[in-house]
Amino acid sequence: MKKYLSKIVVFALLVGVLSSCEEDKIVYKGDGQSLVGFNTAAGNLKTYDPQESTNPSEIIVEVGSTKKVNYDRTVQVVINDELTDALPSQYTIDQSTFVIPAGEFTAKIKITGHYDALTDIKQTLTLDLISVQDQDIFDAKRARYTVSIYRVCPRDIPLTYTGYVTGEVGGATEEFTVTFVPTADAATYNVANLWGNFVSGATGSNYDGQYPYPAKLVINCDNTVDITPDSNSQVATDGSDGTFDPDTNEFQLSLTQDLFSDPFTADIYLIPAP
Fold it and tell me: Which domain of life does the UniProt lineage start with (predicted)?
């Protein structure tokens, strides 16, 4: 059974995706009716230790409509129990953000995460949109929003590494240099190429400098590593992961790829450069 936010939480929403219609690919041609739903399907709520960081531990969840009106509208949202493992003590939904100013398209609901109440394990909060005042049509694909809540632990690591491709597919690959570029988010880095000239070594062909593996790495508090491939990559796919050793600053990564016809992962070992 679903539990309601604050019993039955009535969200007053600024509903609006006209401002983000093009970005979110909402297309609706009606006779004055509005299409409503969450503007996106999911988001990350990163929480920071208040003793070490001034970064806000919050996320803004938007609900939108293709039409604005000259009065405030309210929406009703429930927590999906079956898809939620976050505890109420681990987050707060700011009820002052439930008001939808008239004449607006987009509602911005603020959810704050509580670092001290969390562990090093990611938690999930799933919200279902139930009703909207004077609603016309729900976008069924946008009736659910999933929030991943987790701690962010700042890291002080070297930014230059020597990389090796290990395992049975890595024998012909020479060592390579990997440069970590810090981002605005703690423990998050961009890397232009995670596997060097692996394609050249694995195929025995002259592909030096071709088919790099660009990605974003996030070192989690439990020392697991999330790897998100660059959207422009010709080779990288979702599903890569790894581990980080805080004592040695070394990485063990497993990279998925869709360049080769036979499915396999490339195991990468990174050690701080001398």
Answer: Bacteria
Q: For residue 258, what are its two tokens?
A: 């869709």
* Residue whose C-alpha is closest to residue 105's, from 196, 19, 201: 19
* Domain parsing of the chain, residue ranges: 3-152, 160-272
Which tokens hold the place of 62? 């938007």
pLDDT by position in tens, the chain (length 274): 333 333 223 333 333 333 343 343 333 334 456 788 899 999 999 999 898 788 899 999 998 888 888 988 887 788 999 999 999 999 999 888 877 788 998 888 999 999 999 998 889 999 998 877 777 677 788 899 999 999 988 889 999 999 999 865 655 568 999 999 999 888 899 999 999 888 877 777 777 778 899 999 999 888 999 999 888 888 877 889 999 999 999 999 999 888 887 778 889 999 999 9
Pairing mode of beta strands 123-132, 73-79: antiparallel
In the chain, % helix, strand, coil (3-state, to 5) comes to 10, 40, 50
Same fold, 3-152 and 160-272: no
Structure-block tokens of residue 8: 């039955």
Query: 3-class SS at 201?
Result: helix
Q: Structure pTM?
A: 0.64
What is the b/e burial string over 21-58, where b = at least 16 CB atoms within 10 angstroms of the residue's CB? beebebeeeeeeebbbbbbbeebebbbbbeeeeebebe
User: Under CATH, which number does the domain 3-152 receive?
Assistant: 2.60.40.2030
Find, among 237, 197, 199, the residue nearest to 215 by Cα. Answer: 237
Q: Is 180 helix (H, G, I), strand (E, B) or coil?
A: coil
